[in-house]
Structures are given as structure tokens and as C-alpha cells.
UniProtKB/TrEMBL annotation, chains A, B:
Its main location: mitochondrion. Its EC number is 2.7.2.11, 1.2.1.41. SUPFAM superfamilies: ALDH-like, Carbamate kinase-like. Gene3D superfamilies: Acetylglutamate kinase-like, Aldehyde Dehydrogenase, Chain A, domain 1, Aldehyde Dehydrogenase, Chain A, domain 2. Bifunctional enzyme that converts glutamate to glutamate 5-semialdehyde, an intermediate in the biosynthesis of proline, ornithine and arginine. This is Delta-1-pyrroline-5-carboxylate synthase. It is found in: Mitochondrion matrix. GO terms for molecular function: ATP binding; glutamate 5-kinase activity; glutamate-5-semialdehyde dehydrogenase activity. It comes from Oryzias sinensis. GO terms for cellular component: mitochondrial matrix. Pathway: Amino-acid biosynthesis; L-proline biosynthesis; L-glutamate 5-semialdehyde from L-glutamate: step 1/2; Amino-acid biosynthesis; L-proline biosynthesis; L-glutamate 5-semialdehyde from L-glutamate: step 2/2. InterPro entries: AceGlu_kinase-like_sf (IPR036393), Ald_DH/histidinol_DH (IPR016161), Ald_DH_C (IPR016163), Ald_DH_N (IPR016162), Aldehyde_DH_dom (IPR015590), Asp/Glu/Uridylate_kinase (IPR001048), G-glutamylP_reductase_CS (IPR020593), G5K_ProBA (IPR041744).
Length: 781, 781
């Protein structure tokens, strides 16, 4: 038996982290021969019996593209009945009205209702039109199609089966897409009490597609219908979750696979019995049909993905997405996925995180100190893993040298990392559980607002492996559960560092509070877990932050959007300070988000030696200057004009523009800036204070380099990141970025009705001191 | 001349608030005869010369649907060239290879490149196929089509023009969709140096569509191409913005309209000259072509919308959206839009808001006090407007009585509103500009973190007009600019209240800081202004909050998602407190988000009289009980089983479930709750503290009703809303929900390089007291 998935998975290198459900999906990229089954719900348009043309066209587009890229595609389609019904309805209406006109001669209102149409007649009438449509559509992609009509009975006759096989084989060899449909004209009539819709369902070609896929040794059968896939519980109930990978062997009492096969009939019956609970509320007949078909195909060696082909958001790319290994629908696999899925990891992290949050602050500090110890104890092990990563990176030659530098660890780096962790451990005493506000609402009714962890935080970081223990320590200190996704270039180092972190956590039985997801798991997929992840923190390039902001749907992202930082040189600026601050802001580390991108110069400076000094300094530092339109107009020979005044160069380049006044500088920054960090250089305190006051950027500086916008330099201790958002945390964010608050109200049977006009109570709303309570709380915990 | 838009706008009742660009759009809903022009970019697939089938199919679907709903639809299409090329290429390849085989007989590698194809030949070859495709597609919607081939020259011959007119008129009368294309076979050949693509562009049927639309007196011409519309500046430059409504009369030196018409040729030339700057960077020839065509049609009395038909996100509904009045592309209108657009309102609000934020706190308080005065001074005026609203509401009979109650104002209500505003005025002294943290970073380098307003806040509220002055006062107190969108049921009252608010603001020249957008402006459209609005606060029903959360893309929304609140009755609960708190939590105001939805009862209670007391009380209060599965299993005759344990009933209904312990209650709440407000009733302090500690809801209460979760009851003063988000503000949110922070760093020429290993400076990071600075700041401001 051809076991496509087993083969691919066996050949694949073992992933370091548990994510083999992801590995399963990735295996699909290697599927060569693919059967796409279009259920009637995909082909037809809801209740109206026409075809869903747009849907069909985009499916044809995907199939044609995959075919043109060397895959062998087959389509099993429904829809002839619908197409035929549409056509016959016209004919019947026409003949009816003619008949009526002949018979009655009266001008009576005509009965324009269409009689029930026999499904098989509809199918026969629709077949030619449907094929013509497919052909016209595929011809747009220079793809040839062939019509194949079969019945399930054809598979029972060995000769017919072999003939069919060789026909299809020959078509595939000639690069032709076979379009297969049931030969409805020769099958038994539909059940008596079924309406036309029921007929489509019953005649749905699940089993045909399965048989065909197995017969043709297809690697993959993609079955598209109007359900999302298989659920672990009846869809719509509290606990219903879409199953990502369905491994039939998970069902007890069923042995399944190559070694101990059971009869297909029996297997079907048993599995379907087990599944019956899962399918309780979805259309029963339809569902069990497709599950049966999927299991059949699976046992025959064809992997199956069942997905929704009617969701307008994904229809345009559902097939290509599945073939690219994206998590869509339910994947029926003959191989058991090892390790937890990312959803399971998130759930484990949350429940461990809740225990972590309820630990005393001292115990959380203990864990961090233990991690700090482990880092120094296991330095050699860490460096060995890091060496491996560095070797891979330099041999591939794909990483730029700056990246290599960030990837590389040293004894000194690990030591300072360890020292940093101990500082975080100290600050942990004063993060979660802090009382921010105490109010006596009424007699014996006291309200407290206290800091609490946010919940489950996903941190996505690139290259720098030292990020892992740092972020872990911040999360532990604040009582948050953590999902980590590191760059694959640091996979070995991250693996060791994660083990140490989990070892430290295990001293309080909480190793699952910090989890690492596969480096290959798609960010997009993680961003979809909006009910499970409370905050995403991307730490890395601007591109990374942008990508994540775009992908995150419903999950807040803490990160800076852009860093178009300005330095404004006022008329009253001191020359020394200007040269020092401009050089530092632009050249100290031009790739940083807090580096200067635009230099605004007061018009009066233009005529002074200071102007030449600035330009000379920038030239010496090899900074490429782009002139703003105003600046360009002052010069006879200006440098290249800035394409946009809103550019983040991230390099030794900057824009220079001229303004008339501090006020104009503020307006310029409001218009073109990104509200990150902006600087004024002046000796005039009044001008400076106005600038600081009027500008609504996250960081506004007077006579200081923009590069100070940084958590460490601000004295926040460890930095969670820099935020340009206007809510939650703004600017450099310390550990408080990982905290939220909760309100605790302690009463004595108080009700709101007591405070009504007829009630006995009145609101006091007295502010209470915070300190006293902190002691009380420590006692009670 | 038929002036469709003028007619509609003249008939429409004047909107109270300025939003006539919106009224323009709404007028489109009444367009009956519509020409849809499909540019070649829409019909063909990028560089490959096939048709964009999916796109075409969904356009056909929209046109057919509009036709079936009684509109008269015409399509002007491109694409025959592409279709024909696809077809001829096959033929040529085939004949080439046959020829080569005959000529050479060798097995040499064949030159399979296709010679340049003559566009007109392609068009002729493609026409039949294209029409067949349209026909097949439209037949899916039981819609008949007719092929009409014309040339621009046909319009110059009066007889031909009249023949064409009556043909099309007859087709429309018979409910047939005419599909019109240029008769390429008889037009002059394309320019010599143009490639096939260029040919398509030059032959693009903009002018044909415009002539046809005017000839047929169409109300609307929808021109779909691959550009978004007309920009005020070259697209891609810093200031480029898509023009929503383009009124050619805005161009100086051009008078345009029915009264003083100028020759079309001259008008075209002048407008195009004026427009040339706008179009600098987009494809010049194409752009000026479509602008010319649009202006032509406009002058002929047909409104024009130019939009992108190739954007996959909207293609499926671009035509229906435009016809429904949604803001898509550029609308060429012969009527000048009065009043600012919502984008302009937002910009005005932001710039006034910036001045408001820089006012001294005392001055912001002054404005609020003035508003409080105005409310009492103008009470009669307010009540008169309110009476109008109430009359409309009760006569329509559509508002439920609870809604009517919220809508209605009284002298008492206005007085207490006024008192509330004075309280907000007092608190304004201590909101924006508060110093939260002061750090001496280094010698002479001092850092401050201060509270600042968020920026532009959009508040969407229903029914309750008293919300308007309240929210305005909160925004003014915190220095935020405000966009308000009230319910249309309170339009008159809101109008008066807005005028008073703006009058108060005008004492410091800031009336534009609070703006009201049209009641009819779509929330969806507002939610798209993600670069202009910083925070959205929906105040109203759960449905409203949900809708806005779904629509808001990239703008944070402050609001509660769901309120599935629990009351847990512990084994050690006091019976009196249980009855009081459960009654209050469920019955005091069941529609509130902080009302109890699930009652969790410790198993031990089941056997006690307290259990019967609880059930009796709920029965007396007519609360319908739904049994959780565990509870149901204990009863012989149980009430209806709860469909889901995660239900927010929002009514006199609740779920009752049994748990074994406090621990299990916490787990239940974590699993099914919405982290809003959860209560424990117990006399055991240890159990209570554990519950309060372990539960991660926004509000956790001990022996107090869940209904206390409210900004006023918490003593926060005015309430911005309730948040179930985990970042920014959580639980009942006071004015601090409208504040963010900024970092102010004051130095003396400090650079980061000074602090490097080679540098002269070291970080001090000393915490400084806050009070001293507050005095200093007051001096400097």
C-alpha cells in the first residue's frame, strides 16, 4: 500500500520542538497527484439551484495553476443536476405557457410554478452545459479537460475498473485534467420522499471521489463542502472544536493501519459509531457519508483534507492553501501526530500560568534566580548549541554579519544576561499584586484595584537567543504564561535555553507555563488564536512587527509601527549640542527605530557656520542626505530630493528640511512623523517647553539624543518593547506592559438596591491609603 | 437635461448635520438605469492574457442580482482581445508545429514562441467566445443577455444613434442585459509601436461607455478599472488622498452645470489641464482618458463612480456596494457637496483637540462649567427638541418602552447632568498633564512620564442623549478631540446639545474639537479611518459593541465583549446574603452586562433549606431557570436544560449549575465566563480570598452584588465605559481610560555615546519625588 504521508514524514528531519501536527500539514506540499472533490454545496448557489459561478471559477483557477506547476489534478464534481434544473425550468415554463395558451385561450393568470423535476433527467440535461462551462474556464488557463462519467458500480467490475484506471492514467500523462461525475442517468432513482435538494445530498460524490483517489493512488483527496471539517463535539456546543488532524487510530478498540487491518465495513461502522456523537447536530446523513468516504480513502493510502469550499474569505485560495500546508479544515491522517498542537500548548500554558500568577512574588523570584543560576552553570552547553547554530548560519552564508553578531553568545553575554535576570527577580516583588487604588465605597464595602498579569503572551523574536531567558523572566516575574516563537537560525540555542527555563519553572511544578512553538509554525496561524492569546509582542525588525500587526486579528499587538524620528535644530541652538546630538541620533545605530530620520533646521541657521558644520559632520559620517522640497529650493545644487517626508531610512541616510519656526517644526512632525521620538535642540527654555508640550509623540526630548528612547536608558529595567500605540503602554515599555488590573470588592451582603432612594445605604467613596492594605494582603496570602 | 442626482437630493429631507457627501452617496440607492463598464484590467488576468474568470463571474452575479431587483443594467465590456489571443495562440502554435513538421521533417527543437498577434483579429476571434461565456454565466441567474457591437463613430451618425437607442431601449424593456463592446474589426488599426497590451489600453472603452450612458439617460455609470479612483495628489506621494466626491465646479475658471454650459471640448481640456498634476504618477494616458469620459458623462446628466474592480477584497460586492451608497472609489457629481466630509471633520477635530490639550487645566474646566451653565440656561430648548424626538419615536411605535425612557429628558435629568458636569470639571484639574514618574537618568538628564490625551476618540452611542454632554465633558477634561455619532432617534435633542457644547468650546475658540457625524454615516466607514481615529468607544447595546469590534480594523475599541457573570454560593454562605445578592445580581436590572447569568451552587447546599429558598425567590421574581447538565442530573423533574453554559440571557433568565467546591467554581468560570464580573458568597474568609485571588476576571467580588461593577458605584466619577479587554483599561473605566502617557526627557546635550564604555557619563536612574515637579510645571505653563 502506498503510504504517502508516512514516506514524507519518515524522510523529513526531526523537528526539534513538538509540532508534528504542523509537520503533517507541511507534508502536503509534496503531494503530487491530487483529487479535488467539489460537493454540491460548493458548486451550487444556496437555495437557488444555479451554479455558484464565482466560486467555481476561482476553484478552476487554483486547479489549473497547480496543474500548470506540475501536479496531477483530478476534479470530482457535482452540479449537473443544478445546471440541468436551471435549464429545464426554462423549457418547462415555455412549454407550459404555450400549452396553456393553446388549451385555454383565456387571459387568466398563468400558473408559472415549475413542477418537481426528476433529478436524473436534470443531471442528463445539465451534464453537457456543465462540461462546456468547465472547458471554457479551464481553456482560460490553457488547460485541457476531459469528461469522465462513472458510477460506483464501475468500480466493482474489475475490467471496467482497469479500463477506467488506464484512461485516467493516460489523460494525466497528457497533462489533461479529468473532470469526473456520476453517470446519473444510469443509476437507480432517488428515494421517493426526497426533494431535489435531498437528491443532491444523497447522490453526493464522496464515495466516488474516495474510490477514485484510492484507485488512482492519489496522494491527497481534498473534499470541499460547506462544513469546516470534523469537530470533537457537536458543532455549536460549548466545547466544540475543529479537529486539525484526525487520526482514526485514536478511537479506542479500532486497530488501523498496514499491520493489523480490519475489514473496511467493520471499521467504518465502528468509527462512525464513535463519531456519531461528534456529528450529532450537523446534517447527519451528509456528515457520516463524508467521514466514511474519508476513512475509506485514508485506508487506501490517500491522505484526506475536508474543508469548507463555500467560505468567501478563503474560497479563492482554499485548495492552494491546503497544498501549501496551511491549517485549514480537518486533515485525516494515517500517522499519529506526536506532541501537542499549538492550541494544546496554549491551553497548557494558560493553566500553568494561572498557578504561576497565584504564587507568592517571592516564589516567582526564586524561579528567575534559579534560571539565572542555570545559565551560568550550563554556559558550556549553551555555547555548544550556539556554536552549532553559528556554523549552520555561516555555512549557508545567508545571514548578514549584523545578524550573526546578534545570534552569537559568549561567556560575557551570558553572565550579563544572568545579572539582568537577578534584577528582574528583584522587581518581581513589586509587579503583579500591587494595589493601585483603595476606596471605601460604603460602610464595610471596600474596593481595591490591583495589578494582575495579562494572561497568555505570545512573544515572537528573531535571531537573538538571549531574548528567550529575558522574556521568560519578565513573564515569570509578572505571572504571565508565555508562548515563544524564535527564529529558526537560533533553533539549537533556543532549545537549550528553553530546557533551562522549564527546569527552573519545574521547581514549582510549572514547566508548562513557558512553551515554545515550532519555528516553522506560521505566524498567521498563531495570530488566529484570538480566544487563547491575550497579547502579542513582536521583538525584531520593523518588517516583523508590520507582518504581525497585519496578521493579528482581534489580538492586541505591542510594538512600534514606525520610527520616523525628528531632530529640530532651533534658531537658539548651541552649536556643540547640535553636532553631538545630531551625530548620536543618526549615526550611533542607524538601524534602530529611535534613530533620527529627518533633520529639521530653523531657517535662520542656514546662513550661519553651524549649518556648514552640520553638513560637514554628516558627510564625514557618510550620511546620505535627501533634501526636503523647501530645503532644495534654497540650494543651487541640492542633493537628491526626498521621495517622501515620511521615510524611515533605517540606514546612514536622512532627510533635511527647513522650517520657519518651532511651531512649523511641530506641524511638520505631526504631519509626517510617526509619534515615536522627537527632539528639539535649543537654549531657549520657553521654546523648548512649548515644543515638549505641543508635540504628541510618545517621547519628546530637549537637548538629548533620540537614541535615549529605550527601556534600559530610561531606567525601566528589562524592556518588553517599544510601543507607538496610544493605549495601554506607550514608548519604551517595562514590565508594567505585561500587567493589567483587576478590581476586588469585599462586602458584607451589599446589594445595589440598598443604595436606591428607598435604600438604607449611601455611597462614601473615600480614598484609603495603599500601604496598610499591602501588609494585610501579604498576611492573607 | 436629466439631472438624476439633483432630483434625488432636492427631494431628500435636509439632514440636520453636515454630511452631504454622505447624502450624495445615498442618492445612488435610487439609481435605476446603470451602466457598468469593465475596463480591460478588470476582465483580464494581469500579464497573462486570459480572462479573470472569478472576477468576471462575481461581477455577473452582482449585475444579474441588481437586474432581478428591478434595475436596468447594461454592461460595457473589454476582453475580446484577450479571449481571442488565448484562442488564436493555440491555433497558431498548432499550425506552426504542423508546418514545421511538414517543412523540415527534422526532430529539431521547435520554436514555440507566438508571433505578435494583430489586436483586431484577436478581438474578432474572441468576441464569440466572450459572449458565450457571458451568456452561460448570466443564464445561471435566469437572466438573458444580448450582444451589441458599436463603434464611437456610430454615435456621430444621428440615424445610427437613434437605431442603437431604440434597440437598447427595447432590450431593457424586455428585461435583457445588453452587453456592449467595440466592434474592433471595423475600427482603425492600433498605433504601430504599441504592443498588445497597449492596444487594450488605447481601445479601452471609457468614452464608449460614457457616450452610451448619456445616450441612454442612465442614472449612473460605474467604471471599474484597476485604479482606486481620483486622487488630490499624485498617488504614492505624501499627501495623496483618494477623492470621495469630485465636483468639477471646484476647479477654478470652469463654470459647469445646466445654467452656464461651456463646450465639452474646452471643458475637457481645461479640467484635464487642472487634473494633470493629480494624475502625474498614475498611468497618464489611461487616466486622462477615464477622467475625460467621466466628465463627459457627468455633463450629460449621468453620475459616475470610478472604482477599483480588481481588488480581491471588494470585487465580490463592489457594484452592489456602490449602488447601496457605500464609500468606494471616486464619485463624480454635478452637485457640490455641502459641509465637510467625515475625514475633514476628523482632521478639524484633531487640530482643535491639540490646542485643547495644550490649554491649562483650569481653562478646560471653564469650558465644562460653561456647558453645565448652558444646559440649565437652555433647558427649555433642550426639552422642546427632546419632545420632537419622543413624538417621532412614539408615533412610529418602533421603539420599545425602555428605549423611550432612555430617550426622554426632564428638568431633573438635566439638572443632575449639569451637576455631574461640574464634578467632571473639578476632576479635569488632575487628569491630563499629571506626572506619573520622575527619574534622574544622569546628571542634568531628567525624565518625566506624564499623562496626555489619547487624541481623537470616536464615541458611538444609542438613544440616551444625555450621553452627549457627558462624553463631551470627559473628552474636554482629558484634552481629547471627539467625534460623536448618536442614534437617529435622538437626532433633534443631540443637535441642540451639540450646539451648546460647541458654544461652550467656542469661549476658547475650539468649537471644532467636538464634532458630530451624520447619524446615517455608516459605522463601517468610520471604522476604516484607522489613521485618523485613535480609540472607539461604543456606548450602548451588546450588539452595538459587537458590531463595532468586528468593523474596527486597526483602531482599538474600548468596550465590554460579553457579560457572562457568575455568582457562586459557597457551602459556608450566609442564607440572608445569598438571597439578597442573588436577587440583586439577577433581578435589579437584568439587561445590564453586569447582571448574573449563571448561579453556581455548592453541592452541599442542595440538601439544605437554603436551596429551596433560592429557587422560591427566583420563581417569585419570575426568573426562568435553565439547568446545567450537572444540576439536571440531580433532579427528577428538571427545568429546561441550558443550551450552553456560556449564555448571556440579558433577561429574567439564568442558568443554575452545581459544583463540588470553590475550586471547581473557579474552573467553571474560567471555562465558560467572559472575565467580566464574578461573585463569591461565603462566610469563610480563606475560601473568599482564594476565589478573589485565583479568578482572573476584571471584577471579583466577595459578598456583594455583581451589579456594583459600575464606574459611578466604584467612585470613578463619570464613566467612560466598561472594558473586558486585558490591556489599557479593564472593568469600569473612568477618565483615565481617555489618557495615555508621554515621556519627556530634558538634557543638556546628552548623547548615548557619552554613556558607552569609553564615555564620560554613567546612568544614575534615581527616582525623584513627583510633587515638586508638579509645582514647577504649573509655573512654566
Amino acid at each position: 500500500m502506498f503510504q504517502f504521508l508516512n514516506r514524507v514524514l519518515t524522510e523529513a528531519p526531526q523537528s526539534r520542538v513538538h509540532a508534528s501536527s504542523f509537520a503533517h500539514r507541511c507534508a502536503l506540499r509534496q503531494a503530487k497527484r491530487i483529487v479535488v472533490k467539489l460537493g454540491s454545496a460548493v458548486v451550487t448557489r444556496g437555495d437557488e439551484c444555479g451554479l455558484a459561478l464565482g466560486r467555481l471559477a476561482s476553484i478552476v483557477e487554483q486547479v489549473a495553476m497547480l496543474q500548470n506547476h506540475g501536479r496531477e489534478m483530478m476534479i470530482v464534481t457535482s452540479g449537473a443536476v443544478a445546471f440541468g434544473k436551471q435549464r429545464l425550468r426554462h423549457e418547462i415554463l415555455l412549454s407550459q405557457s404555450v400549452r396553456q395558451a393553446l388549451q385555454s385561450g383565456h387571459n387568466q393568470p398563468k400558473d408559472m410554478s415549475v413542477p418537481a423535476l426528476e433529478a436524473r433527467a436534470c443531471a442528463a440535461a445539465g451534464q453537457s452545459g456543465l462540461m462546456a462551462l468547465y472547458e471554457a474556464m479551464f481553456s482560460q488557463y490553457s488547460t485541457c479537460t476531459a469528461q469522465v462519467l462513472v458510477t460506483n458500480l464501475d468500480f466493482h467490475d474489475d475490467e471496467k475498473r482497469q479500463n477506467l484506471h488506464s484512461t485516467l492514467q493516460e489523460l494525466l500523462r497528457m497533462n489533461i485534467v479529468p473532470i469526473i461525475n456520476t453517470n446519473d442517468a444510469v443509476v437507480p432513482p432517488p428515494e421517493h420522499n426526497s426533494d431535489l435538494h435531498g437528491v443532491i445530498s444523497i447522490k453526493d460524490n464522496d464515495s466516488l471521489a474516495a474510490r477514485l483517489a484510492v484507485e488512482m493512488k492519489a496522494d491527497l483527496l481534498i473534499a470541499l463542502s460547506d462544513v469546516e471539517g470534523l469537530y470533537n463535539n457537536p458543532p455549536g456546543t460549548d466545547d466544540a472544536k475543529l479537529i486539525d488532524i484526525f487520526y482514526p487510530g485514536d478511537q479506542h478498540s479500532i486497530t488501523f493501519g498496514t499491520k493489523s487491518r480490519v475489514g473496511l465495513g467493520g471499521m467504518e461502522a465502528k468509527v462512525c459509531f464513535k463519531l456519531s456523537n461528534m456529528l450529532k447536530t450537523s446534517k447527519p446523513q451528509f456528515s457520516s457519508e463524508w467521514v466514511k468516504a474519508a476513512l475509506w480513502a485514508l485506508q487506501g493510502g490517500t491522505s484526506v483534507v475536508i474543508a469548507n469550499g463555500t467560505n468567501p474569505k478563503v474560497t479563492g485560495h482554499v485548495i492552494t492553501d491546503i497544498v501549501e500546508g496551511k491549517k485549514l479544515g480537518t486533515f485525516f491522517s494515517e500517522t499519529k501526530p506526536a506532541g501537542p498542537s499549538v492550541e494544546e500548548q496554549t491551553e497548557m500554558a494558560r493553566s500553568s500560568g494561572r498557578i504561576l500568577a497565584s504564587l507568592q512574588a517571592e516564589k516567582r523570584s526564586e524561579i528567575i534566580c534559579r534560571l539565572a543560576d542555570l545559565l551560568t552553570e550550563k554556559t558550556e552547553e549553551i555555547l555548544a548549541a550556539n556554536k552549532l547554530d553559528l556554523e549552520v548560519a555561516s555555512s549557508s552564508g545567508r545571514l548578514p554579519s549584523a545578524m550573526l553578531k546578534r545570534l552569537s553568545l559568549s561567556v560575557a553575554k551570558i553572565n550579563s544576561l544572568s545579572i539582568g535576570l537577578r534584577q528582574i527577580a528583584t522587581s518581581a516583588q513589586n509587579s503583579a499584586g500591587r494595589v493601585l487604588r483603595r476606596t471605601r465605597v460604603a460602610h464595610n464595602l471596600e474596593l481595591e484595584q490591583i495589578t494582575v498579569p495579562i494572561g497568555v503572551v505570545l512573544v515572537i523574536f528573531e535571531a537573538r537567543p538571549d531574548c528567550l531567558p529575558q522574556v521568560s523572566a519578565l513573564a515569570i516575574a509578572s505571572g504571565n504564561a508565555l508562548l515563544l516563537k524564535g527564529g529558526k537560525e537560533a533553533a539549537n540555542t533556543n532549545h537549550v535555553l528553553l530546557q533551562l527555563t522549564q527546569e527552573a519553572l519545574s521547581m514549582h511544578g510549572l514547566r508548562e507555563a513557558v512553551q515554545m512553538v515550532s519555528t516553522r509554525e506560521e505566524v498567521e496561524g498563531l495570530c488566529r488564536l484570538d480566544k487563547m492569546i491575550d497579547l502579542i509582542i513582536p521583538r525584531g525588525s520593523f518588517q516583523l512587527v508590520q507582518d504581525i500587526k497585519r496578521a493579528a486579528k482581534g489580538i492586541p499587538v505591542l510594538g512600534h509601527s514606525e520610527g520616523v524620528c525628528h531632530v529640530y535644530v532651533d534658531a537658539d541652538a548651541s552649536a556643540d549640542k547640535v553636532i553631538g546630538i545630531v551625530r548620536d541620533s543618526k549615526c550611533e545605530y542607524p538601524a534602530a527605530c529611535n534613530a533620527m530620520e529627518t533633520l529639521l533646521i530653523h531657517r535662520d541657521i542656514l546662513r550661519t557656520p553651524l549649518f556648514d558644520q552640520i553638513i560637514d559632520m554628516l558627510r564625514t559620517e557618510r550620511v546620505r542626505i535627501h533634501a526636503g522640497p523647501r530645503f532644495a529650493s534654497y540650494l543651487t545644487f541640492s542633493p537628491s530630493e526626498a521621495k517622501s517626508l515620511r521615510t524611515e531610512y533605517n540606514d546612514l541616510e536622512c532627510c533635511v528640511e527647513v522650517v520657519d519656526s518651532m511651531q512649523e517644526a511641530v506641524e511638520h512632525i505631526h504631519k509626517y512623523g510617526s509619534s515615536h521620538t522627537d527632539v528639539i535642540i535649543t537654549e531657549n527654555a520657553k521654546t523648548a517647553e512649548q515644543f515638549l508640550q505641543q508635540l504628541d509623540s510618545a517621547c519628546v526630548f530637549w537637548n538629548a539624543s533620540s537614541r535615549f528612547a529605550d527601556g534600559y536608558r530610561f531606567g525601566l529595567g528589562a524592556e518588553v518593547g517599544i510601543s507607538t500605540a496610544r493605549i495601554h503602554a506607550r514608548g519604551p515599555v517595562g514590565i508594567e506592559g505585561l500587567l493589567t488590573t483587576k478590581w476586588v470588592l469585599r462586602g458584607d451582603g451589599h446589594t445595589v438596591a440598598d443604595f436606591s432612594e428607598q435604600g438604607t445605604q449611601t455611597y462614601l467613596h473615600e480614598s484609603l491609603p495603599l500601604e496598610q492594605k499591602e501588609i494585610l494582603q501579604r498576611d492573607s496570602s
